[in-house]
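Dear H.,

Thanks for agreeing to be a second pair of eyes. The structure we're designing against is below in token form, covering all 433 positions.
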């Protein structure tokens, strides 16, 4: 089909700054051009070099005072929790009982699920997030509603039905067998359809019996390229509870390990209280952890030790964890990530930050051959960030002398207001204003 070109400043990551140093970690074109054809990146480079090579009549869309980056990747979020963001006064286990479980109960109603899926995807795209790893509810129709809404917009998304057969209200529980059968049905219906992937989704160890975890592990091994998505070591009381429920296991991660739930495409949200041995095991198995700073602060869960977890070679992505998290914006997540690391004597420079929100997330999800940066052949999921989003952002960025300073200030001050336009597979899926 007809190519289209987008002209703006352009920045994307090529590697983890931790592995190659800041200079080699990214590619930047002050006056850049992104050429998109058939939903994929055809070419990327300096406008002056590429413009003369375009076929006659190619449309060139210009964005002055803007920065094109890859779409953001959210490695942990709950679509049925939009209704509980900003719920007052509790930490994890009380928060689940008081706010979250009652709200998730409403998703037995397909009409409600459809409405919420639309609201949720609208918010993700308004915030520049083009791929997310998403929790549904225990109801299989919650996942149908979500995937239907994603399919309409041709988004690369991963989701699954929650498995939960104990320690939850009756209206939200399945059984080991029904959870297995319902998940299987959803996998057959959705996994690999368009740009969609299925994730086997045990909520967390306390809400599944060993029988359910055994069947989850069996399912995870039965289909190629499935994901496994759960929570781990978010809150100290939760960690103690897991020890009581599974006294025969070495620790929290060992519960998942024992049931065949770790390895490539396994993503564990939080990991705030992991021990060294658990980090080592996550690293050697190619598992990933989702760092969810706004949630860890809001729920008072603790401070994620990025240096330690990465030091064991674990893949780390960034997550919002809405509704425990307080914003859909990955810029807002990075702002809070910076502060979480500051409190531990660690730094988060702007390039590492961009890496976590884009290519690092893609690597955590084993999707870096398709998304995460704008190299030719990648799917054209990108965002246009507005350097003049607000008077403050405009002024502060005008004071910055280097790209690094400018990007850092944008990530500290920016949120959905800084997202001018969002593209998925080369098609505009959100435009501000
Ligand atoms: N642990 C188990 N369920 C949840 C949830 O819904 N949100 C968060 N943040 N942690 C959990
Ligand atoms: Fe969560």
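And this is the sequence the design step returned. I haven't edited it by hand at all.
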């Amino acid at each position: 089909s007809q190519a289209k070109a987008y002209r703006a400043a352009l920045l994307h990551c090529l590697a983890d700054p931790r592995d190659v140093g800041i200079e080699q970690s990214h590619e930047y074109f002050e006056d850049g051009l992104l050429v998109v054809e058939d939903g994929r990146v055809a070419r990327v480079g300096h406008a002056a070099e590429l413009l003369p090579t375009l076929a006659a009549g190619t449309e060139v869309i210009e964005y002055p005072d803007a920065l094109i980056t890859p779409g953001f990747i959210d490695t942990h979020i709950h679509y049925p929790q939009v209704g509980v963001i900003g719920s007052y006064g509790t930490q994890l286990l009380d928060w689940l009982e008081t706010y979250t479980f009652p709200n998730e109960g409403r998703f037995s109603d397909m009409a409600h699920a459809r409405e919420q899926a639309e609201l949720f995807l609208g918010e993700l795209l308004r915030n520049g997030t083009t791929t997310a790893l998403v929790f549904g509810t225990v109801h299989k129709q919650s996942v149908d509603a979500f995937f239907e809404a994603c399919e309409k917009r041709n988004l690369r998304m991963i989701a699954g039905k929650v498995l939960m057969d104990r320690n939850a209200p009756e209206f939200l529980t399945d059984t080991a067998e029904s959870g297995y059968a319902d998940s299987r049905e959803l996998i057959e219906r959705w996994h690999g359809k368009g740009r969609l992937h299925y994730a086997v989704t045990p909520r967390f160890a306390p809400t599944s019996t060993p029988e359910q975890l055994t069947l989850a592990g069996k399912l995870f091994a039965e289909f190629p390229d499935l994901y496994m998505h759960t929570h781990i070591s978010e809150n100290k009381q939760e960690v103690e509870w897991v020890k009581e429920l599974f006294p025969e296991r070495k620790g929290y991660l060992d519960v998942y390990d024992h049931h065949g739930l770790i390895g490539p495409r396994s993503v564990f949200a939080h990991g705030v209280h992991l021990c060294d041995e658990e980090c080592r095991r996550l690293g050697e198995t190619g598992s990933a952890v989702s760092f969810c700073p706004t949630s860890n602060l809001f729920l008072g869960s603790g401070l994620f030790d990025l240096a330690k977890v990465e030091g064991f070679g674990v893949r780390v992505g960034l997550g919002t964890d809405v509704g425990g998290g307080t914003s859909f914006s990955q810029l807002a997540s990075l702002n809070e990530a910076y502060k979480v690391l500051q409190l531990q004597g660690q730094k988060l420079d702007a390039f590492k930050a961009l890496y976590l929100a884009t290519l690092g997330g893609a690597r955590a999800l084993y999707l870096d051959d398709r998304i995460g940066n704008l190299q030719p052949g990648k799917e054209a999921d990108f965002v246009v960030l507005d350097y003049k989003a607000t008077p403050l952002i405009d002024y502060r960025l005008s004071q910055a002398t280097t790209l690094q300073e400018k990007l850092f200030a944008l990530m500290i001050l920016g949120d959905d207001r800084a997202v001018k336009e969002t593209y998925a597979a080369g098609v505009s899926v959100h435009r501000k204003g």
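Two observations from my side: Residues 158 and 331 are 21 Å apart (CA to CA). The chain has two domains: 4-71+372-431, 72-328.

Warmly,
E.
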